[in-house]
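Take a protein:
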Amino acid sequence: MTTQGMEGLPPEAIEKALESVAFDESGLICGIAQQADTGEILMVAWLNREALRETLATGQVCYYSRSRKKLWRKGETSGQVQRLVEARLDCDGDAVLLLVDQSGVACHTGRRSCFFRSFDENGLKIISEPEVSPEQLYGASGH
């Protein structure tokens, strides 16, 4: 089952809301992506002010890539987009919960969720297999 994506918010509402966000010393906030209709936690990534602004304005989730030092629009290379259903700010203003409608897989390993390993008595156990190969998602270059 899929959920309806959120329409973008008006610019004045976004700017007012951004005043309450406690970005860290690097200008980032932790974003938790959760499938809106099932509650499944899909991934954790970082957003800077511009990524959060774009996400709220367009309804398409945008993150900040710390390794590439640029905006990362989820699905721009893989086609596995996240449509924003609702965004929530935590009590301290330093984490944002992104309730999304995930198209396809969320993880660069080809799994639905990035949380595919469980701690057990032997260390870590794989609890879900890839649904699609990373090569299919990103081509020969990978993530």
